[in-house]
Amino acid sequence: MMVKYSTDYISLHILLYGQDLQITTMNTSGPVEYFILDGLKDRYVLPIFFTVYVSILSGNSMIIYLVRTDPKLNTPMYFFLHNLSFSDIVYTSVTIPKMLTVLLTEVKTISKTGCFVQMYFVLSTGVTGRALLTVMAFDRYVAICNPLRYMTIMTRRLCILLIFASWGFGVVIVLPSAIWATQLPYCGPNIVRHMFCDHSSVVSLACVDTTRNGILSLTNALIALLSTFLFILISYVCIGKAMRKMSKAQQLKVAATFVSHLIVVCISYVSATFVYISYRVARFDPDVRIVIAVLYSVLTPLLNPIIYSLRNKELQDAMKRAFCRCTVTFKTSRKTVSSVA
């Protein structure tokens, strides 16, 4: 009977899956020691991911370099932008290198500890990015609605406190969901249907009912997203009221100071909404869900430097000054080498 059952079981799998039969190792004898990242399988996306990652590192590193070296960018707004670029670098560096490794070597395994560490940093830095966008909205509110008191309100001490609060918010708000996920028993399938250790994809592999875990993670996500979005919305409502009292020329001048931030906020929250919908609609194709999640994870970090650079004259001028400094240094070094020769 046991032999007949096994034969029928294998025959059923061959009938259902044909030539694409894949044998999956099920860890039924003990707890799962590693996970298998089984997301997108097409290797043609490798050069795309590599190009995107290099662009993210280059663009955000450029902003960090300019803010730290150019005295004219020594303002609260650029201090916050500097931290946003750093959080984007950390956010993408947690996921994309592993994606590239999987696509390049086809070694899809990741240790259980490494998976949970990746999960935590993805959640934490994602929330931190939105907290920094909220802080930047507050900065624009103070600059536009209280211009005469801007420097007395946005002191260096307050800016540092806001940065610590943003990173602290990201660290703390996701901690309960991440810790609870690590405490769940994983004793069955270990295949994560994603390109990285996404929280929902990993928790769904637990051997127990994860309804409470899902409610907790959803609650934390809504608190993180809705609270930051609400503060940003209030800031821009106040800015809109203040702009109504200005002339047309003043409105255009003021709008130029926050339009880049507003575009980034819209892209970030609209893409987050699409990801949320894809996970809550059961009929969503798993591959489409993976594509949406991956695009969400790279879209904002990729577009941030482009949007701020294209629409911000101060950053453009800073890039020109940095280029001129590099050119002068290069010419000076060449003259020194020639004179020595």
Low-confidence stretches: 1-29
Helix and strand succession? HEHHEHHHHEHHHHHH
Beta-sheet strand percentage?
under 5%
The helix content is over 70%
Task: Please report the total strand number as a whole number.
Answer: 3
Task: Report the total helices.
Answer: 13
Helix vs. strand class = mainly alpha
Shape: globular
Q: Tell me the distance between the termini.
A: 90 Å
Overall mean pLDDT stands at 81
Integer-rounded radius of gyration: 25 Å
Strand order of the largest sheet: 2-1-3
Q: Biggest β-sheet: count, sense, barrel?
A: 3 strands, mixed
Describe this protein with a few key phrases:
globular; three-stranded mixed β-sheet; 76% helix; mainly alpha; 341 residues
Please tell me about this protein's structure.
The protein starts with a helix and ends with a helix. The chain contains 13 helices and three strands. 76% of the residues lie in helices and 3% in strands. Helix 4 runs parallel beside helix 9 (211-244), helix 4 packs antiparallel against helix 11 (259-280) and helix 7 runs antiparallel to helix 9. By secondary structure, the protein is mainly α. It has helices spanning 2-17, 46-69, 76-105, 112-145, 150-153, 156-173, 175-183, 199-203, 211-244, 248-255, 259-280, 286-311, 313-340, and strands at residues 34-37, 109-111, 191-192. The chain has a three-stranded mixed beta sheet with strand order 2-1-3.
Short recap of the structure:
The chain is mainly α and 341 residues long. It has helices at residues 2-17, 46-69, 76-105, 112-145, 150-153, 156-173, 175-183, 199-203, 211-244, 248-255, 259-280, 286-311, 313-340, and strands spanning 34-37, 109-111, 191-192. The relative contact order is 0.12.
